[in-house]
Design goal:
Helix content is 23%, strand content 27%. The chain is an alpha+beta fold and 678 residues long. Strands 9, 11, 12, 15, 16 and 17 form a six-stranded mixed beta sheet that branches. The protein has a four-stranded antiparallel beta sheet with strand order 8-10-14-13, with no helix packed on it. A four-stranded antiparallel beta sheet has the order 18-41-40-39, with no helix packed on it. Helix 2 runs antiparallel to helix 3. Belongs to the TRIM/RBCC family. Its EC number is 2.3.2.27. This is RING-type E3 ubiquitin transferase. Keywords: Coiled coil, Metal-binding, Phosphoprotein, Repeat, Transferase, Zinc, Zinc-finger.
Length: 678
């Protein structure tokens, strides 16, 4: 008899090692412990063609799913240290590719765990892991359980946070849905009112038409009636007279004829209204073009993509506050990806809290370009706080701590001296930053550090600078520095590695007297603004002077520039020369913007300019020690955060090929690279 093992309530024939051949192929060996996973699954011979007959004769039933087969030949075993399990060489659709370490098909599992391979070891595998560190399996299991428990605790600790966030987002979603319903109701109501007003106006016009028609019709109808009567009298008299004339003349008819004669005389002089007493004009003057235009523009759905978690504030009003003096804070709204919003109308609130808990009034100005300005004045000294909320949520860094001080006379004098011409030498302390620039101190209200690295010291050697000013970046990953007092241009990689330099001092074409601005044209040519020579020169990418026969020489703006500082090139090939004058390649003035001051969009000696891929214009504001960003039409957008390492007289700037802003910090004799998020 063949041995039978119960599987799922049925007896299944099993052939073990050294037993006589059960099936016609004799290469099927099945063996398993009682608690194996396979005790719940039937095993069949995949090769025996008499499978159905065998099972029908011995078991009284025929398996229906022949594909449910595990082919285990010669009791083969393979230990996979990476999966921490043994593998069966066979196929079974419902069985995992790997089996837990407790199942090894005839191999007993050793109570060891290989730490290097992260695998439980069977006795056959122990020699292969002789040089590997091993620990008892129970210890490894305990460590794994402990690690798993720690991970579980970490995930569970996040559940309340996620639950709160879920509730909050659902609340916002519900508010959005409710707001949609309210606006839809307003639209329906407004247009219903408009329909009613249109119907009323329609009725008025129809009534006015009817009244006007009746008046004119009455006049004309009376005239018609009068003419009809006159025509009848004339016709009757004429008929009677003709009949009288047709008869024989006698004394008896003379009297009648005399009466006819008198009547005809009277009718001949009868004053009938032969000219129209009214006209037929009835026109409709309906100005529908303006109305259609108004209807076309009637109503606007106002929204922004701004989120509080990405929006940020900057400006001296966050820290440098003086009693009785207006302080200004600029808020830049950004979307979920950190991109600057370009439209206004966001719901923004600002509150300045005094030490006693009262609130200082202020004014929020919407610049309609995604930026807002909050201006406030505090009446006394002390520690204040500023809460800036966007859609009832604190923006990045809010609430801010404010320290209010009284201004000193020395500080007043220092403020008056701030922002002298770039050509004047200054002794004493460094230039103070603008009232709207980014704060210098990082002890309060820290925001994200946007500085990546800085390169350079004062000197005349390679990689050293003396009053560096212009900066440019090429699409090939090069950074170009106009080293003004060294009369040359130095070139670095995007990572700050020195590459080469070129330039010769002089006032002839091709020489540099005081290079203050540098840019790279889409053709690869290098454009240099020379402040003392009062022109813009063009060089090849290798640093060779370029001569244009049509221009007689490559000197743009010669005779029209008083002292060019910064230079850049936009996507259309326009050469932009500071002080904010935009020229076509042929030299035609296209745009100018800005004014003197410290407010948004104002300058105190602008020196550097660059244009990003979106057409935004970035300007280095030398006297205010800051970098401002404008759109292509010259409208102020935002600032670049330079608080990590404050600027001391920024000069030229540019955008690198990897999207960063590089600026020449002339007062610190280096150039700096910042992240740029526009």
């Amino acid at each position: 008899m063949f041995p039978f093992v119960p599987l799922n309530g049925r007896n299944v024939p099993i052939r073990l090692d050294n037993w006589e051949h059960l099936c016609q192929f004799g290469d099927i060996i099945v063996g398993f412990p009682k608690r194996s996973l396979l005790t719940q699954m039937p095993l069949f011979c995949p090769e025996c063609p008499k499978l159905d007959a065998l099972f029908e004769s011995k078991m009284g039933w025929v398996p229906k799913k022949k594909e449910n087969i595990i082919d285990i030949k010669n009791n083969q075993h393979e230990c996979n240290p990476r999966t921490r399990s043994s593998k069966l060489k066979g196929t079974y659709p419902d069985l995992p590719a790997t089996v837990p370490p407790s199942f090894s098909l005839g191999h007993q599992v050793a109570e060891l765990f290989c730490s290097a391979c992260e695998s439980a070891l069977c006795e056959d595998c122990v020699p292969d892991h002789e040089e590997h560190p091993k620990v008892p399996l129970s210890q490894a299991l305990e460590q794994h359980r402990s690690s798993l428990q720690e991970r579980l605790g970490g995930v569970q600790s996040r559940l309340p946070q996620i639950s709160d966030a879920l509730s909050f987002v659902k609340e916002i979603l519900q508010q959005l849905t409710n707001q949609r319903a309210f606006i839809e109701e307003d639209i329906q109501s407004s247009f219903e009112d408009l329909h009613k007003q249109l119907d009323v106006r329609k009725s008025v016009l129809l009534m006015e038409l009817e009244v006007t028609y009746r008046l004119k019709q009455k006049v004309l109808q009376a005239q018609v009636d009068s003419l009809v009567r006159g025509e009848g009298d004339l016709a009757a008299s004429c008929t009677q007279t003709e009949e009288a004339l047709a008869g024989e003349a006698c004394a008896a008819s003379m009297q009648a004829e005399q009466e006819l004669q008198e009547r005809l005389g009277g009718l001949a002089g009868l004053g009938l209204p032969c000219q129209p007493e009214e006209n037929d004009q009835l026109d409709l003057l309906l100005e529908t073009d303006g109305l259609r235009k108004s209807i076309h523009n009637l109503g606007t759905i106002v929204t922004t993509s701004a989120v509080a978690s990405q929006s940020e504030a900057m400006g001296a009003g966050l820290e440098q506050c003086i009693v009785g003096h207006p302080a200004s804070v600029t808020i830049v709204t950004r979307d979920k990806s950190g991109g600057a919003c370009k439209s206004g109308n966001a719901i923004l609130s600002a509150e300045v809290f005094t030490p006693d808990g009262s609130i200082v009034d202020g004014e929020i100005v919407d610049h309609k370009n995604g930026t807002y300005e909050f201006v406030y004045t505090v009446p006394n000294e002390g520690d204040f706080s500023l809460a800036l909320r966007l859609y009832d949520q604190h923006i990045k860094g809010s609430p801010f701590k404010l320290t209010i001080n009284r201004i000193l006379e020395a500080e007043v004098e220092g403020a008056k001296r701030r922002g002298k011409s770039p050509g004047q030498k200054k002794k004493g302390s460094k230039r103070a930053s603008s009232a709207l620039g980014t704060p210098r101190r990082k002890t309060q209200n820290p925001i994200e550090d946007d500085l990546i690295f800085r390169i350079g010291t004062k000197g005349r050697n390679k990689g050293e600078f003396t009053n560096l000013q212009g900066v440019a970046a090429s699409s090939t990953g090069r950074i170009l520095i106009a080293d003004s007092n060294n009369q040359c241009v130095q070139i670095f990689s995007n990572e700050g590695e020195f590459k080469t330099r070129f330039g010769m001092r002089g006032r002839s074409p091709g020489q540099l007297q005081r290079p203050t601005g540098v840019a790279v044209h889409p053709t690869g040519d290098i454009i240099i603004a020379d402040y003392d020579n009062k022109w813009v020169s063009i060089f090849t990418s290798e640093g060779k002077y370029k001569f244009f026969p049509t221009l007689h020489e490559a000197k743009l703006g010669s005779g029209r520039l008083m002292g060019p500082k910064g230079v850049s090139v936009d996507q259309d090939g326009h050469v932009i020369v500071v002080d904010n004058k935009v020229f076509t390649p042929e030299g035609e003035l296209v745009l100018k913007f800005g004014s003197n001051g410290e407010g948004n969009g104002q300058f105190n000696a602008p020196t550097g300019v660059a244009v990003d891929v979106n057409g935004n214009i970035i300007v280095a504001d030398w006297g205010n020690s800051r970098i401002q960003v404008f759109d292509g039409s010259g409208s102020f957008l935002s600032y670049i955060n330079t608080s990590a390492d404050p600027l001391y007289g920024p000069q030229g700037l540019a955008l690198t090929s990897d999207g960063h802003v590089v600026v020449a910090d002339s007062g610190n004799h280096c150039f700096k690279v910042y992240r740029y998020l526009q």
